Amino acid sequence: MKSLPEWLTQLETPFLLIDEARYQRNIDRLYQRVAQLGSQVRPHLKTLRSVEAAAYLLPQEDHPATVSTLAEAEGFAAAGYRNLLYAVGIAPHKLPRVAQLMRQGVQLHILLDTPEQAQAVTEFARQQQLTFSVFIEIDCDGHRGGIPPDSETLLQLAQQLEGNGATVAGLMAHAGESYNCRSEEAIRAAARAECDAIRLAAQRVRAAGIVCPILSVGATPTAHYAEELEGISEVRAGVFTMFDLVMHNVGVCQKQDIALSVVTTVIGHNAAKNWVFVDAGWMAMSRDRGTAAGPVDYGYGLVCDMQGAPLDVCLSTTNQEHGIISLPENGTLTPADFPVGSRLRILPNHACATAAMHQHYQVWQAESDQPRVWSRIMGW
Predict the structure, then answer these.
(1) Are 5 and 369 in contact (CB under 8 A)?
(2) Is the pTM of this model over 0.85?
(3) Comparing 2 with 237, which gets the higher pLDDT?
(4) How far is CA 274 from CA 206, 270, 335, in A?
(5) Is residue 232 within 8 Å of 35, Cβ to Cβ?
(6) DSSP secondary structure of 231-292
């Protein structure tokens, strides 16, 4: 059992805590696995949106990375990172910000899947005498956006872009339906479908004379269960660094792999209702109820002791600045087991959503008796 540093009992609560050892172990696990399959990870930085956290993921300034906002792209570019995929469909009014980053020497790839977006890109490129690097999104599972790999629209879109102020640098697929899988074989099937879809799309685009060098796939479940990555340039994943209860329900991680928790203080009881009140509400945990449809519903988070050991009770209700732990009537725990002033850690349903509620993160490093503070890039 690790001894608890004194600062864990002194910092104002609630605060977001990152276990550095778990964070590094989670990164090593996926990076080594993908490397053994002959590809590389283009990590999605949206979970923490932190320059300090990115240093663990990006060993060189030109290591590929993924972002979900232009604010992230600008923040990571300012820190020196130069190979970024903005993996949200481009809105035409954002092209000037993209162009500004390009003029600073950033290789910023943009994503699209409609002729209207392509037209906006090519027109802006001609006006500004620029050449955009574009990824076309491929629909591999009917989950969200993208173009079916066998669609004629795909070839029309690629031809609309290539050489007209844009280069089709790659194709991108995201197996979002893998989050609904409930078995390892189902995740493996989703990973196969993801890779097969993007390889088919690439075959057709390349046959039309467009090089399209990068094939990018990825979701945290499929990244961990893909059996082969032949021809796949890169694998994107984001929440793999932290993991969360949704990923635990999917079967991708164990509870002890979750590297992010919220530290909270017990502020009162309602003994008649078997309730424990804490100072972490939805402003600390988020309103994400991502486990509600899963095999185990963890409410608004799984309650742990300060060592991180699960107590098998959940944060059942959240108001803005306080939460309620409803203890089971026939359970072994009573409100008296949670003294006022004592502290707990709560594992989140969705690490990205919980991290978004905090401007700074406290990082627990085994070799240090003081926390390291990581800051979050805010805004869009």
Answers:
(1) yes
(2) yes
(3) 237
(4) 64, 6, 6
(5) no
(6) T--EEEESGGGT--HHHHHHTS--GGG--EEEEEEEEEEEGGGTEEEES--HHHH-S--TTT
Report the DSSP beta bridge partners of residue 268: 277
Confidence class of residue 367 from pLDDT cuts 50, 70 and 90?
A: confident
Residue with tokens 């600062």: 7
Amino acid 364 reads W
Q: What is the pLDDT of residues 120-164, one digit of tens each?
A: 999 999 999 999 999 999 999 887 789 999 999 999 999 999 999
3-state secondary structure of 251: coil
Cα of 375 vs its chain's centroid, Å:
16
The residue whose two tokens read 């037209």 is 119
Distance CA 77, CA 135 (A): 19
Place of tokens 């590809």: 39
Backbone angles phi, psi at 41, to 5 degrees: -90, 130
- Confidence band of 1 (pLDDT split at 50, 70, 90): low
Rg of the chain (C-alpha set): 22
Which residues does 360 contact at the CB level (< 8 Å), separation at least 6? 16, 373, 374, 375, 376
Residue whose tokens read 């944060």: 315
The C-alpha atoms of residue 233 and residue 169 are separated, in whole angstroms, by: 12
The two structure tokens encoding residue 326: 């409803």
User: How many Cβ atoms sit within 10 Å of the Cβ of residue 20?
Assistant: 18
Six token digits for residue 330: 């026939």
Q: Give per-residue pLDDT as tens, 20-42.
A: 999 999 999 999 999 999 999 99
Residue 243 is encoded by which pair of tokens? 């993991």
82-95: average pLDDT? 98
In three-state form (DSSP H/G/I as H, E/B as E, the rest C), the secondary structure along 77-119 is HHCCCCEEEEEEECCHHHHHHHHHHHHCCCEEEEEECCHHHHH
Q: Of 56, 154, 69, which is closest to residue 108 (Cα–Cα)?
A: 69
Residue type, 372: R
